[in-house]
Amino acid sequence: MSWMKCCVFPLVLLCMWQLQEGAHACTCVYDHPQTQFCQSDVALKAKVVAKKAVGGNLNKDIKYDIKLTKILKGPKRPFDTFYTASSSAACGVILNEGVEYFITGKLMPDGCLYVSSCNYVVPWKSSHKILVERYKMGCDCKIFSLFATFPSMSWMKCCVFPLVLLCMWQLQDGAHACSCVFDHPQMAFCQSDVAIKAKVVAKKAVGGKYNDYIQYDIKQTKLFKGPNRHFNSIYTGSSSSACGVNLNKGVQYLITGQLEPNGSLYVSSCNPPVPWKSSHKILVERYKMGCDCQITRCYGDPCGDRHSDECLWTAWLRGNNQPVKQSACRKRSDGSCVWYKEAASPTKG
Description:
alpha+beta, CATH 2.40.50.120, 4 domains
C-alpha cells in the first residue's frame, strides 16, 4: 500500500502537528527561492564566524557575526552582522560557524539586517553563482503559489494541499526535465569555476540506483581557469532530463563547469562543452578580459538604455546568434564595455 505511505500518513502527521491545541510555531508560506531573493532587501554570500544571544529576558535575539564575501543585492556597505530570533518557533535560523551561506533578509529601520526562516538561507553552492544572475533577470516575473489562492482556509493549507503535493510528487512517472536559461558563452565562462581544453577518452555510468551520473575520463590539454591542478575526469547527469551532456569519445572540447564540494568537476547542459576550434584560443583570452562586464539580453527591439559596464545581446532576437557568440564583451580604457569581434575592432552590438 505505497499510496498509503506517500499520501495518507503524511496527511495525518501534518494535520496533527498543525491542529494541536496551544501549539505556537513559526508560520510562513513557502516561496520559491527566486521570490525570496527578489522580495528581500539584502542578499549576501557570507561566512558565519561567531554567534551570541543579545537582548532582554523576554525578547532575545541571536546575533551572528559574519565575514562578508559578496553583496548580491542591497546597499553597498560592509555587513558584518545580522540578527535572527532566538528559536525556530519564533522563525529564527540556526547556522553553523565556519560555513559559508547564501543569505537573504530584511533591513530594519535602524539599518540592521534581520533574517528569518521565512527567508532563503542555505549553505553556499557553486551553482548559486549562476542562479543569482538568473534570479535578478526574473524579478519582474510572478511565481504563482498554490497556497496564496486560499488565504482563509488554513485547514486546506495544513492538510489537503500537502496531501495533493505529496501524492503528485510521489506518484508522478518521470515528469522531471532540465530547464535553464541559455547564456552567452562568455557568461558561461566567467561564471564557471573551471574552464579547460580536453579530449574525451572514455565514458561510464557511476553512482547509486536513484542518483546516477556519467563519468567522462578526459585528457586535459590546457587549463584556462580554475585551481592549478590536472583534471582527469568530469561528471554530468545521466540523461538530458537531468541536464546531462552527451560527449563523443576522441573529440577535443572547450569545457566549463562547477566544482563540487568534493573537488570533482560537474558539467551540465546549462553550460555545455563545445568542440574545440582554433578561434577559441583568442576568444578565451578576450572572455578573461571581459569578466568585469555584464552581458544583458535585450527583450525588446529597439533596446532600452544600457549601463556603461554592460553589453546588450540583441542578435538572439533576430535568430542570428553566431556573430555575437563569436564575439567578446570587453572593457575599454574609459571603463565602458563594448563588443569585440574576432577581428578585434570594437562594436556596439
